[in-house]
Structures
1.
Amino acid sequence: MSYQEFPNPMIIKAATKAPYLERQEELDLAIRWAENRDQEALHKLTQAHMRLVISLAFKFKRYGLPTAELIQEGHIGLLEAAARFEPEREVRFSTYATWWIRASMQDFILRNWSIVRGGTSSNQKSLFFNLRKLRAEIARNGTIMNSQEIFTQLAQTLKVSVKDVANMDARFSGPDYSLNAPISDDDDGSSQRQDLLVSEEATPDQNVTMMVDGERENQWLYQAVGVLNDRERRIMEARRLSEDVATLETLGEELGISKERVRQIEAKAMEKLKTALLEMNPEFEHYAKQ
């Protein structure tokens, strides 16, 4: 077990020995830091609230991350709170700092809890940190519900989609696995989990089919272009058959007509091409619908 799983005893000892601050003393220290950047005031202010950091760190211990690292992240949140605190608002620093400490720890957990990075929006964070608690509350109520009903109720409560709830529940239900891990314990390592992933690329048969279909469509297109007049052909070549698509305005200037007229001619040419393609090759109707 790594030593990092436990906080440094000296940190805990120093935190427990730090004096509690009265409201006015806390305010005076905050003002000294905010107005004069008094490092001694900052040290006293943060040291007095390290027990709050440690307390919150132990509450997040159930997520399986080293408590020492949670305390470190919480300390960063505490310093952030000190940097942003506005004494004139007459709010206790401990109340204000609690939000920043908790937020810092939660961000750390979301970044490191799983090798699969999860969402970081406020709704996703709420889902991550409240899913188990709400599900346990539903179970304590004694209501018999199937998974879909539970997911729907949780989604409504947390204001996320049912799909998000189902995905998060699946992540909680099992550990992460490396794609390079063997498929079974008896495997010699030659077969890995990544071998079971379904490829999104086209199969060789599909590639051949697409190539043949593409050549066939090109042949039909070149045959059909013969029904267009010179101006229609120029517009279609510039608008549909060129890698650098010309704008309506550019073609209008070239042909001495308005860009609206270019658009009308393009639309008419498309209809003529479609009619010609269907007359020459009735099979084209199938490709036109894809």
2.
Amino acid sequence: MHPVLFEIGSFPLGTYGLLLAIAFFAGTALAKRQARRDGLAPAAITDLAIAMLISAILGSKLLMVIVDLFSGVPAREVFSFATLRAGGAIHGGIIAATAVFFWKLRKGQGLPLRITGDALVPGVALGQAIGRLGCFSAGCCYGTESHLPWAATFRDPIAHLFSGTPMGLPLHPVQIYNTLANLAVMAVLLLARPKRTFQGQIFALYFLVEGLGRVVTETWRGDVDRGTGWLHWAWLSTGRLTGIAFMLLGLGLWLVWSRRQGLSQETK
């Protein structure tokens, strides 16, 4: 679509970068709003969100590099300027941000882990939804060929240069599918939050529905070289593998934390 929004002199303003910034501020604002309802300090949420953002950027690029290397992409292409400009693999960012979340709260940030997680994840889903619009603008994470009325055709050579996006070919706008899926995840989390029966339930639910959504939307992904060759025969890709891992993590957290809640009620 439009990888470069406009140029100021010789400096290009990338659409993806701008939307990523909007995603961060929108997601953080929603997380702070949810946090206030549980009596959490908004300033502490902001500090935590900044740390998670930095780790998410690094984690998404690291996973992209790992996948590319295992896929046989030449090292000179992996460690290039194009890699720095690419958005990365979003689940790598989520994994890194989740690790930092647990690490910082274990260090003692004045925030209870499970309630804080419940407050954060609707904002994470919102940020992902907006970020996927950046993917659509940049042409990365493109879909398979499609002749449906809503198919998208990319014509900007910058998209092909940095993401290998096919030019002039109608494709499934899978980035938009992911945006809609992430908005649905956010809606599910917000609707479930007033009805939660144990602390951390919304946090666990996020991984369940986010993972499921990714497994489904991978059906229309066209950048098939994102998984190692020995996995393709098994219907698996990096996105599906991490999606399944997310569902298992969500299920595990749900079972452990709900059991703890039940035990604590029995001892009262």
3.
Amino acid sequence: MPSRLPNRAPVRADDAANRAFARHMMGLALLTPEREQTLARRWRRDRDEAALHGIVLAYGRLVLGHAARFRRFGLPVEDLVQEGNLALLLAADRFEPDRGVRFSTYAQWWIRAAMQEYVLRNWSIVRTGTTTMQKSLFFKLRSIRARIDQSGGARDPAVERERLATQLGIDVAEVESMEVVLAGRDRSINEPAKDGERERQETIADSRPLPEDVVAHAEIERLAHRSIEQALAGLSERERRIVVARRLRENGETLDSLGRDLGISKERVRQLEKRALGKLHTVLTATIRDAKDVLFAG
């Protein structure tokens, strides 16, 4: 009777293709120093694309190696490889073969820097680090935490914080602040909720007002605006001028100023304003109450 084989997750076509590509790149022979210099000079001097292709193809394994190390940040390896390939092209364009430095040494700096920038841009929607110190702290702190986890917690986190702060010349508080950032990874609102039956977005309360409330509020404001115009029309010309100048302008006039313009005392202006506001209050209260009764009837 044939033995039962364990269930295995199906291999996606793109995963298989990526692995095949990686095996092909890792199997390519590295360039000798002489061949590397020849190709670099041909590209720099003659812009020979065949020479550029030879350099990039030979050192594509550098990109794959760095992408494998940066994959622990949870970002797509394909995107990391793409960033690394762009950096490899940039390194080839700026490489100066006459300086006596191997291209692999020069290119690794560009590849690592490009992937670090990509991680910092995409690890969180919140800016993780902007200064050189913060970027260095981000990556070194993750390495230290990984070593502590591998040692089973034998290392003292407080001692490691102080050691890192001393090494970078910063306060321990800055290290602790970065630890908080690293601990608070972004979470998708599409991930399952605690009950396992819904997505997290379905449990988030919507604080916005209901559509019917928005419509009702807008209608009440429209009616109130029209009621104010009608109520003002019921005032005398002097009362209307006082209310508009005192209450309906951004910088209202003073009682003294209005008294001089109208040829009356400041106290008389105050009395007229009080009487006019009383009339407006009576009309508007009745109007708004009636409007609410109509809008919310039933």
